[in-house]
Amino acid sequence: MSLEKRLNDMPEGIDSENVAELRQALLRLQKQLKRSKERTEDLVEITQQAAYDAMLTMGKIPPVPEVVPDKRKTKAEAALWHMTDWQGAKRTVSYNSEIMRKRVMEFASKAVRITNIQRADHPVKTCHILFGGDMVEGLFNFPTQAFEVDATLFEQYVQVSRLCVDVVRFALANYEQVTVIPEWGNHGRIGSKRDNVPRSDNFDRMCYELARQLLAGEKRLTWLDCPEDVQRVEIGTYRALLIHGDEVGRNGFASPGAIVQHMNRWRSGSYPWEFRDVYVGHYHTHAEWPMANGLGSVYQSGSTESDNRYAGVMLAASATPSQRLHFVDPVKGRVTAVYKVWLD
Ligand SMILES: [Mn+2]
To answer: pTM, whole model, 2 decimals?
Structure first.
């Protein structure tokens, strides 16, 4: 191709025919690009370091002491904690960051007390923690959100990561093995729905990642990542899906009938992995609906928040704070006990 032709092919705005001048412009742009890349990298590093430092100001994270293994030969069951929709930093007349922390830790302690009751009959050695998403309230879901939170996005990030750490450490102190399966929600979205940000760049996911890194030394802990927004739960032969709930329907809302019908279609092959149950958050209410095959269920779980005026008035659905605790038979591959743990 001739130089002249190449110059004619230049993008609009670059109309110089002087090669030396063009070369200068190219060098200038390359320098600028390098500087801006360095700035972004610095920013990422500073944010991570700041979050880490902020975390340490909340108190040291000592290693979790060992637990005494259960030597009984009887068949063990597994605990499953479905913890979802903490809406971290959301402020209502009866909810804020401090109450979130209190309720979340209250769930953990009640779950362990109920586990100990179960242990009177059989071992419960493992705990699967399903973090269901919307752990942070975020800042970008509606225009006045900034006035309805008690912490900035950075503080939400630090507080919620730390709460995840504390929940998992509490579980590690009470079960021989802990597996975390995290799922992100719609509130962790960065920017407006129309902004050009990958969906998996999500504050919930960032909180999970920081918490995971802070617990990297724990050998009895398995922590999965969530690049996709549907998670697979496997406990022995038990197979379930964990979704946030905004995946189904328009604008993140679908009726219970529509959700169950959708899951039945996933179950009949449109989702490429066989499963029995589905765990859903997002609606802040506790419910259970049967799947068409007569075996599995869709389990919807509550939130730790209270006095959500939007839900009460706009959706006519208010709820008392709760989270879900299950026990699972890993050989028969099914849920054996269902608890709605009240947190008011
Ligand atoms: Mn949600």
So the answer is: 0.86
